[in-house]
User: Fold these one by one.
Assistant:
Number 1:
Amino acid sequence: MYPKTMIKFVLTLCGSLLLVMGLNAQDDREITEVYPELNLPIAQQRSLTQESTVEITAECSLLKPRTGLVTINWKEQQRSFAEYRLDLTTRKGGFDNELFATVWPIRYGNESKLINRKRYPSEDLTRGLKLSTSAVNPSRNSSPSTVTLEGLEPGINYFWRVLRRDESGWTTSEVIRIEAPTCPVDLQKN
């Protein structure tokens, strides 16, 4: 009985290690390798039309102390975010120099990924770019379409652009600057 149990344990352990190693190998790939559609050209001469523009706001979470949130509100109703992506950077000119992260595909729990990790010589340069979607709300009837992300670094300026995919590549919104809020909290001991 002991040897069978030991063999099962060893096989389970080996299988778990192989699974973890496989997941880590996938994480080592650039996001543009995982999602080749991110390599489509971005049309600099065109921008999203006025009716498809977005409003971006930053505020403190009412549910999570010390947590800054950013909410992207589409002025037009969106039944799906399948054709959209969100790009963000903390550097002025970060989009031109490929120093930005993207949220693609837009879905609940998805984290932002660096577009070109090789351009970041130190982990400190990526500070503030690790956000995760905490709410994704496509339009239902007349309700607005919103995406909410959390993980903002307090006081940091974020530059955002919203991109929509079409037959010729990506069409971008204007770049919008938002300062992340500082969210203090007073905790009382009872």
Number 2:
Amino acid sequence: MSAKLGVALVAASLSIAAFAATPEVEKADAKAEKKSVRADADAQHDQAKAHYKAAKQKINADHKVAKEKCDALSGKSEDACEEEADAKRTKALADAKAEYEQVKASTQADEKKVKARAEAKEDKADARDDARRY
């Protein structure tokens, strides 16, 4: 490799490295990261919501079948059977909601973490930009 070509390659790599460290690029990276995490969070939330809705439908269908089985009984046996079916439904709905709420809380926490990191990157880029100006 010739000396001129080697110097040109070193100069090019230095200019690329200098470009990558500009405050504008750092701010753009931070914004892109926020958008990406937001999109992921939205997708996770939509999936969790659909799962929750499907779970509620299945729980209600199972409850209906259980109640129909109770109709074959009579008296206190029927009452006890219906109470048990209602209790199972209540527990299953609570479990499904808890799972959905946990996913929501987790994605919100992830979003907050990324937002804080992105804001820190933006602040750092602003500070560097201010230091270069003065």
Number 3:
Amino acid sequence: MLVIGTRTIGSNAVMKTQVKISLTILGTIFSLLSSTAYAGQATIPNTFVSGTAAKASEVNGNFNSLKTAVDDNDARISANASGISKNAADIANIPVQKQVVAIDANGNELGLVFGGNNQVISILTPEGYAAEVFARSAFISAGDSLGSSRIAFTDTDCGASGGQRYVGFDGNSPSPQSGQPYFPGTVIAASNDVTQPQPLFYVPKPATFVGNITVQSVYEGPQNGCQSVATVLQDAVEVFPNDPAITGFPNNSIPAPITIDYR
């Protein structure tokens, strides 16, 4: 016997109203089950037609078929859950790939090392800005592979009158008065004087390269100060005073010396 609601259906023919009730309830159940995503599909062996008698054995057969499918899906879900747990454990046990980083004298990590030579280390900060730093003094370089330049100004007093700052090339090889433009996303010093810290500048990213920039002065660091020039930069990019919040490089001295390590 199968009890649905408050009506009882036997193995013999039932009243038409009872069949309609049964079909409505079964249709709702099948609809709810079919709207949920399962790993496998349920097969319903018996189809009921309105106006015909429904047998309890056929109704039970449908439910048994659903139970088999649900049990099968439950087993699959349990197996998947077990597999996911194992995968998570395997992932957690994967050795973390170490990276080559630059470390200051206090043990602070400055950034990733991506190049260098016997004098300077090329460092990329977590903010995504690069600089070449002298390993022994920890002073930021005026650049080499990232560019080679003095800071050029459009005014006559190295920015005191509000002139714009540029690094660029004026075409007077092999000793251009202003050097070569830097890559966007670099931090540079005004000169390569390794005896004292230099004012720092950065090339923003993205940066727009421009030409025909008339400059009237260049800054060569504390040692040489501001120098008058008269030239036109053929290829240049604007620079700005270093902002540690943007570049990740401090304006004050980095504790020296700098070493490299895996972390």
